[in-house]
Amino acid sequence: MPPVRGPNAVDIALTVNGHAATAHLPSQRSLLELLRGELGLTGTKLVCNAGNCGACTVLVDDRPVYSCITLAVACEGKRVETIEGISKDGELHPVQEAFIDHDAYQCGFCTPGQVMSIVALLRSKAKPTEDEMRRAVTGNLCRCGAYVNIVKAGMSAARRGTK
Amino acid sequence: MAGLRVVKSRDEFEGEIFESLAIIQGSDLPPHAAGVEFEEIGKSRKRVDGVQRVTGRATYTQDVTLPGMLHARVLRSPYPRARVRAIDTKKAEALPGVRAVLHRFNSPKAAFRGEETIFRDEVRFIGDEVAAVAADDAETAVRALALIEVEYELLPHVTDLEEAISDEAPKLEDGGNVFDAGSLKRGEARQAFKDADAVVEGTYRTSTQLHNSLESHGAVAQWDGQILTVWESTQHVFGVREGLRAALLIPLSQIRVICDYMGGGFGSKGGAGKYSIIAALFAKQLGRPVRCVLTRHEENLAAGNRSATLQKIKIAAKDGRITAIDHTSWSNAGQGRWVANPTGPTNTLYDFANLTTKSYRVVTNAGSLSAFRAPGYVEGTFALEQAIDELAERIGVDPFTLRRRHAASQRDPRTTKAYSLKRLLECYTIGAREIGWSDRRAGGTRGSAPHRRRGIGMGTQIWGGGGGPPAYATVHFNSDGTVILRAGTQDIGTGTRTVLAQICSEELGVELDRISVRIGDTEGPYGPISAGSLTLASVGPAVRLAARDAREQFLGAAAGVLEVPRTELRMERGHIVSKGARTPIAEVSKKLENNTVIGKGSRWPNPESLSIKTFGAHFAQVEVDTLTGEIFVEKVVAVHDIGRIVNPMTAASQVQGGVIQALGFALSEERVVDRSLGRVMNADLEWYKVPTVLDVPEIVVRFTDRPDRRANNLGAKGLGEPPIIPTAAAVANAVANAIGVRLRHAPMTPPRVLEALAVVP
């Protein structure tokens, strides 16, 4: 359920995918609603809206968060990155490349969230163990069951090294 | 038109045989010659739409936003059964931003699955549609729902399968709650049971499984005064178009349905939903685009499920062979008008003489079932394959050996037709080797701790997957030498775009990256529902024919342009090749300017005299913790016999996904309903437990990979459903091997394991 409209909208300023963004919105609005709504960044998916599935995972100051249960106002002054922001100058991020190479998706709906969780892991630990890779995506459900290849893709990206 | 013929085709869809018509012209292509060197077919190719999927640029229905778009939300019944006496929408309509409210007292007639309107007089489950609001934004629509006042007259309800069967249950329909859904008889089972050396009986239960496709059901509708355009997350754009036609009585020529990308369906997105009709009704009424997308909660109440079943199986043996099976099944259809058949595998899998099976549809005050990946067969195989193991144990025969005795037949026991290709025994051999069946010990082995036991088990898969007509494709050359392949199918995550591009590339002699695939749009040629494991075997052969037609036409045109006799030309890796010369296709197509070559292809009928099936076997190794009741699946070997493999990489993905979804069914997934309230208690992803990455065992995928030359010109059959069918049975048999007691209720949760262990004398 979307939140009930609050009495006051507030102004917030943050960085989204390297660009300054401002928004005027009710304080109950989630980061996911801000991204998909006002900012039109629909790569981040809405699935459970309750912090259960990880499809809406984005990075806030390099840490993976469930954007559906993160308030937009809590991101004031922070650096938000979404799936749209990780490929630079038309070149795919190594994790994205690895997902294609290893067929680490089926319907693709969980893919943006899976990719962001792995990007976050590789920023904090460039050479994770397979178990660490698996744990990085435990909070990302894939109903098609692409898990085997998701873990393979993550490990392959780690081997190639991320920029 | 010259040479046009109408012929009958017999096709299988989800365990049932249907007769259909096929319009054919010219001649079909022969299957590829044995030993032919392929450029594309049989090669692991990355998905042609991979970049869109990993960058977030793939547009799903949820992502479609149109100028001036309104948001529709649905008011759903809070009671499992009630009469809607009155609805007062004054307060809701007065809310700023609300544009319209629809309900049963003001909605135009809109036929939906045999009913005249989408808002029922008697609502029959919690989640049944009562009213809908269209508003400027979703938040306003939700607030308006709370302001709608409905007067309900509560009626007695029943949600539980076994309660609904009992005499005390309230009768939900004139005919009661239990309806005949088919039966089959072969030989004289009664006599065979009398004559048997051993008879084993068991009662099995499987719980309701919720699809939980990550993208919920939904539609965006736009009416421009003449054309209704609907974006929908669906497995069948043409089915949605037909549903909208029937509901709104708009000619098909004025409806366009688009599904570019969709976030999973697993059988539940087979046609128009009430949400599609609501979006379309509002769009027509208000003249603005309308989005109606279900929340996760709604998704788990009103968007389908795999029926819970109660199954009784009796099985007999004489002289070391199965002589008779009696299998009766009751399925909780909720408010569904049909039911899948759990006795399907019993009817078709093994060769034995005497059989009686019956299937019943039971109506309850719960959401309708919908097809869920191999509907009926997953549930039925769980019971049948355990019964086989139990019988084998009783007569002292290795369960692998007993199965082999009945799996060799090359004739379909139901239709008595010969199989087009059956290599089930090869699946058994490969699987047994990979799991180490020879190390299996009756009574299991010690696990990693004294209270842990290890076991090995197997299960067998039979399913259709032969596909059939009608399915069409066109192949269109552009003036720059690139190619557009159109087919009326949709990619539900299986990789359809990619394999169709591979087939087209192979036949055409044009590289994969120069072919662009357009699917998921009713503006293209007709294609079947992406269900029943029929897409590749239906659409693939049509694509091959379309590519061949385009190639022949293009070579004819090239002969004129190059002034070389047609007979000296061929197309190869993007070039027109003649004696001693290679001309890039683009050079020829440029000279043709916009004179356009369009090749057409259609699916030819299936051979009348053959039964086309897919086969497979899964083997599981488990460890069971006898203190906690936890089952740890350590390894699953999945071997499938599905004809030619077009793309080994995406095929393996299908199998891994099927196994993992089956493990959810086997171990953790279960819709829980409070019987007195009639309410689903876990309509979310918090308490409804779908497998996570940590639940994944080692999965070994193997294919027999032999083309089924007699099935269709591609030799390929379907793979969507086969890999979900036998896993739960293999795991259950492994558990029985490990701990010596049989788990007869799926999911096999820790409490059920402990309960089973507790009753051992």
Plain-language structure description:
The complex is a heterodimer of chains A (163) and B (761). With 163 residues, chain A is of the alpha+beta class. Chain A folds into 2 domains: 9-85, Roll (Ubiquitin-like (UB roll)), CATH 3.10.20.30; 94-160, [2Fe-2S]-binding domain (DNA polymerase, domain 1), CATH 1.10.150. Helix content of chain A is 30%, strand content 17%. Chain A has 5 helices and 5 strands; from the N terminus they run E-E-H-E-E-E-H-H-H-H. Chain A has a 5-stranded mixed β-sheet, covered by helices on one side. In chain A, helix 2 (94-101) crosses helix 5. The termini of chain A are far apart. The model of chain A has no long low-confidence stretch (mean pLDDT 94). Chain B is of the alpha+beta class and 761 residues long. Chain B has 4 domains: 5-59 and 467-602, Aldehyde oxidase/xanthine dehydrogenase, molybdopterin binding domain (Aldehyde Oxidoreductase, domain 4, 2-Layer Sandwich); 64-155 and 211-302, Aldehyde oxidase/xanthine dehydrogenase, molybdopterin binding domain (Aldehyde Oxidoreductase, domain 4), CATH 3.30.365.10; 161-177 and 195-210 and 305-346 and 355-408, Aldehyde oxidase/xanthine dehydrogenase, molybdopterin binding domain (Aldehyde Oxidoreductase, domain 4), CATH 3.30.365.10; 419-465 and 608-761, Aldehyde oxidase/xanthine dehydrogenase, molybdopterin binding domain (Aldehyde Oxidoreductase, domain 4), CATH 3.30.365.10. Chain B contains 18 helices and 34 strands. In chain B, the strands form 9 sheets. In chain B, strands 5-7-3-14-11-12-13 form a 7-stranded mixed β-sheet, sandwiched between helices. A 6-stranded mixed β-sheet of chain B has the order 9-17-16-15-10-34, with helices on both faces. In chain B, strand 31 and strand 32 (679-680) form a beta hairpin. In chain B, 60% of the residues are buried. The interface between A and B is large, with 54 and 60 residues.
